[in-house]
Design goal:
This protein is an all-alpha fold. The protein is about 80% helix and about 0% strand.
């Protein structure tokens, strides 16, 4: 409603010059506010993150329908921030697929980087910025713009999930510039990360290729053998991880164990991206289906913990009610009240006798007040037995309600546990598929290193035969 009123008021400012004298004069503060609103409408009205997300969905619908121009127009009307940056990232993907020249895709990525500066969430901004830089570096490298690729990749932070991939691409770009030494330095830094990260396995192979191109064939063979051993060890780790997922579940193995701060984690490594289990968790959570599955398990686990707390509290409350009901002694209470009532009657008789003997009116007034107080006390004692007789019934009603709540809570606990079991089974399946895919990738990398080792040994054998033939020819020339 406010937006409509602003539009109507704004239309009053855009009037025909011939009728300016008839236009109403607006207050200065309203006119200044409308002017700011009109200026803001030219670059997109910031109506909150939800509105920007809605515009992003509209742009995605247009992009997925093949209408990239319409998607670009929607994105141009958005305020700078996270959703605009993601929209331009997706748009750059379409441009890269459609165009032979990466110019439009790189421009879209540069716009995404500029839009991202308006995001107030620093962690989310840094994560997406690193992803945009890696994407831009890959596009530049793919089209032979190596200096531009190096410039993008050197801006990627060293504590990001995309860091190993950026280091690998950085080494490739340097290698294309014939700077093999610097390329191997980048690949050596990438090798310090777990093999679960994209680009690390390629960096292991790249080290051998770098030594090969530099002419150090012996060191190239050693690098390939080291990569081979690393891949074999990683496949053993993946098999153990799969066994643990089958025994303990994916949520316990990948999520809960990553939260531990025990001595095993401390001795294994610092709690950074260099932890293998953290690397597999981050890689697994890149899949939207894995995020939803893990979120369901986490929500159901929190619900189960909350219901368990309710169950414990209701059990304590029921025990307290049962104890109070058992400890009520109506007979003792009646005996005490009867004795007090008898004492009250004696006191009332004594007060009446003193009042009859009293000559002073002030004394008679005080004795009359005392008699009234005593009468009120006797009435309260008379009702005490009635109230005490009703208390056990009230306690029994409360206990009945608590037992009903406990039964309902037990049913909810059973239902949540069944749902959690199904959610964990779905998560386990996704996790095992992910581990199997990682094992397949390690198998491909292992085949690649074995092929490189075979080619290297074949080349060395041929080189040795050539050298032997050359030495025999020289020896034959020296004979008479």
């Amino acid at each position: 409603m406010t937006f409509r009123l602003l539009r109507i008021s704004l239309s009053l400012l855009i009037i025909n010059p011939l009728t300016v004298s008839a236009a109403p004069v607006l207050p200065a503060d309203i006119r200044d506010g409308l002017e700011e609103f009109r200026q803001a409408s030219g670059v997109g009205v910031n109506l909150g993150d939800n509105h920007q997300q809605s515009l992003y969905r509209d742009a995605e619908e247009a992009r997925l329908s093949g209408k990239t121009d319409d998607a670009g127009r929607v994105l141009a009307g958005m305020k700078e921030g996270y959703w605009a940056a993601v929209g331009y990232l997706n748009l750059s993907t379409d441009y890269a697929r459609e165009d032979l020249n990466p110019a439009r895709a790189l421009v879209a990525l540069r716009v995404a980087l500029a839009m991202l500066e308006g995001d107030e969430d620093s962690a989310r901004r840094d994560q997406l910025r690193n992803r945009l830089l890696v994407r831009a570096g890959y596009l530049a490298y793919q089209h032979g713009e190596y200096e531009k690729a190096i410039g993008f990749l050197e801006k990627v932070s060293l504590d990001s999930f995309n860091t190993p991939r950026a280091l690998y691409l950085h080494g490739l770009a340097l290698s294309q510039r014939s700077n093999h030494r610097a390329a191997m330095q980048s690949w050596h830094r990438a090798r310090k990360y777990p093999l679960a990260y994209p680009g690390v396995a390629d960096a292991w192979i790249g080290m051998g290729r770098g030594y090969d191109l530099s002419g150090y064939l012996g060191q190239a063979g050693e690098a390939y053998l080291a990569a081979n051993a690393a891949f074999e060890s990683e496949r053993v780790t993946l098999r153990k991880l799969a066994e643990k997922i089958r025994d303990q579940g994916a949520y316990k193995t990948l999520v809960e164990d990553a939260r531990e701060t025990g001595i095993d984690w401390f001795l294994a490594d610092s709690r950074t991206l260099t932890q293998p289990r953290m690397a597999y968790l981050l890689g697994f959570m890149e899949q939207p289906a894995a995020q939803h599955a893990a979120g369901r398990v986490a929500a159901l686990a929190a619900m189960a913990a909350r219901l368990a707390g309710y169950q414990r509290d209701l059990g304590i409350f029921d025990s307290a009610l049962a104890e109070q009901i058992a400890n009520i002694q109506r007979q003792t209470a009646s005996a005490h009240t009867a004795a007090l009532a008898s004492q009250g009657a004696d006191l009332r008789d004594r007060i009446e006798r003193l009042s009859a003997k009293a000559a002073d009116s002030a004394d008679k007034s005080r004795l009359s007040s005392l008699a009234q107080t005593l009468a009120d006390t006797q009435d309260w004692l008379a009702n005490l037995d009635h109230r005490a007789s009703g208390r056990p019934e009230e306690l029994r009603q409360l206990r009945y309600q608590s037992l009903a709540l406990k039964s309902r809570n037990d049913a909810l606990v059973s239902s949540v546990n069944r749902l959690r079991m199904k959610a964990e089974e779905a998560l386990d399946k996704l996790a095992l598929d992910y581990v199997a895919s990682r094992d397949q990738q390690m198998a491909f990398a292992l085949d690649k290193t074995e092929q490189q080792i075979a080619h290297l040994y074949e080349y060395l054998a041929l080189q040795s035969l050539a050298d032997a033939d050359l030495s025999e020819d020289k020896a034959g020339e020296g004979r008479p």
